[in-house]
Write a structure and sequence with these properties.
- The protein is of the alpha/beta class.
- It has a 6-stranded mixed beta sheet.
- Helices cover 26% and strands 21% of the residues.
- The chain is globular and about 45 Å long.
- Strand 3, helix 3 and strand 4 form a beta-alpha-beta unit.
- It has one domain: 3-Layer(aba) Sandwich (RbsD-like fold), CATH 3.40.1650.
- Helix 2 runs parallel beside helix 3.
Length: 146
């Protein structure tokens, strides 16, 4: 039994198999995971019921497991800031740059090579979609660090 905040076997495997520059999609309950991701991308379904689990909960677990060097959010069509974006930015901190992509740009980014895993959540908030870019272990004492 793992004693670690992230215990989902398939998500752990996908993160372990991806490396520096790999992408992780966290999609809300409205995201079309089959049609708006790179074909063949491993899928992790955590959408147990409406509201469970949330994109923020998935992000927190991933942040504990691996370094993130950049992120992108899906921006509302009117250019406003979605409620989910505030939570994402708070969890990511100021050191992780967050790009704001329009709906079409975001979908296109999710269909590019390098998408290591897509995570479906039950998040009911609109625009609670996040595309993470995995960083590298900066600590030279970490095995495999750059």
């Amino acid at each position: 039994m793992l004693r670690y905040p992230l215990i989902h076997p398939q998500l752990l495997a996908a993160l372990a198999e991806s490396g520096h520059g790999g992408k992780v999609l966290i999609g809300d309950g409205n995201f079309a995971h089959r049609t708006n991701v790179l074909p063949g991308t491993p899928m992790v379904y955590l959408n147990l019921s409406p509201g469970l689990v949330t994109a923020d909960q998935v992000l927190a677990a991933i942040l504990d497991a691996c370094p993130i060097e950049a992120a992108a959010v899906m921006a509302p069509d009117d250019g406003s800031v979605a409620a989910a974006e505030h939570g994402f930015r708070a969890l990511l901190g100021e050191e992780v740059p967050v790009a704001r992509l329009g709906r079409g740009e975001f979908y296109a980014a999710c269909r590019e090579p390098g998408l290591a895993v897509a995570v479906a959540t039950g998040d009911e908030r609109h625009f609670a979609n996040l595309l993470l870019t995995i960083g590298f272990n900066a600590d030279p004492t970490v095995v495999g660090g750059e």
